[in-house]
């Protein structure tokens, strides 16, 4: 495994966060902190950059959508806003999420996307000092949707690129 990088992954639609080239030599910027929401999806722990998440919502009720693709569990309401509730676990090669009463979902940024990703569980927010680039695939299915890995309690947790996995699911329906 490679040594951890001091750079952080780019924010969706934000600055690159990558080292700046200077006379053909890459210069790494100062280490920056990364805040991530830790979740359980399909029985496996993932981290999601908080800049990709508008909020965590409680799923009060799901309304089925006839003819929707299998990853669409239904629609839900958050303060009058209708959100499509999707399960990304199968796209990551994992069993579907177990959405029970008062389950949790991550409402994805930007607000115009109107999508929430269901989870098995939301553990909370955590701050990380560094991450490992997505050069060393650990979970082959999740690797294409990961930005890299974060170390937590001696274990590596995939930092998930939620926009990438949501867009992949959208392309499957076309």
Q: What does this protein structure show overall?
A:
The chain has 174 residues and is mostly beta strands. The chain is built from one helix and 13 strands; from the N terminus they run E-E-E-E-E-E-E-E-E-E-E-E-E-H. The protein has one domain (20-172): CheA-289, Domain 4 (OB fold (Dihydrolipoamide Acetyltransferase, E2P)), CATH 2.40.50.180. It has one helix at 162-172, and strands spanning 20-22, 25-27, 34-41, 44-49, 53-59, 72-78, 81-86, 103-108, 115-119, 121-128, 132-133, 146-152, 155-160. The longest helix has 11 residues, at 162-172. The model is unreliable at 1-31 (pLDDT under 50).
Q: How many domains is the backbone divided into? A: 1
The count of helical stretches stands at 1
Compute the average pLDDT.
79
Shape: globular
Class computed from helices, strands and strand pairing: mainly beta
Biggest sheet, spatial arrangement of strands: 10-3-4-13-12-11
Radius of gyration, rounded? 17 Å
Largest sheet: 6 strands, mixed
Specify the helix fraction band: under 10%
> How many β-strands, per DSSP?
13
* CATH class category label: Mainly Beta
List unreliable stretches of 5+ residues: 1-31
Report the β-strand fraction as a percent range.
Answer: 35-45%
CATH topology: OB fold (Dihydrolipoamide Acetyltransferase, E2P)
Distance N terminus to C terminus? 38 Å
The CATH superfamily title: CheA-289, Domain 4
**CATH hierarchy: architecture:** Beta Barrel
Question: What keywords describe this structure?
Answer:
single chain; 174 residues; mainly beta; OB fold (Dihydrolipoamide Acetyltransferase, E2P); five-stranded mixed sheet; disordered N terminus
């Amino acid at each position: 495994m490679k040594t951890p990088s001091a750079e952080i992954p780019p924010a969706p639609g934000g600055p690159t966060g990558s080292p700046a080239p200077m006379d053909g030599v890459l210069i790494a910027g100062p280490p920056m902190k990364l805040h991530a929401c830790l979740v359980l999806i399909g029985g496996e722990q993932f981290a999601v950059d908080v800049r990709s998440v508008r909020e965590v919502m409680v799923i009060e009720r799901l309304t089925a959508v006839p003819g929707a693709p299998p990853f669409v569990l239904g629609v839900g309401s958050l303060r009058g806003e209708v959100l499509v509730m999707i399960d990304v676990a199968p796209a990551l090669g994992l069993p579907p999420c177990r959405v029970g009463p008062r389950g949790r979902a991550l409402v994805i940024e930007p607000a115009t996307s109107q999508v929430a990703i269901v989870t098995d569980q939301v553990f909370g927010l955590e701050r990380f000092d560094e991450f490992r680039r997505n050069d060393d695939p650990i979970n082959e299915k999740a690797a294409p949707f990961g930005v890299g890995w974060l170390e937590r309690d001696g274990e590596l947790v995939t930092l998930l690129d939620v926009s990438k996995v949501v867009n992949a699911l959208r392309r499957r329906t076309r």
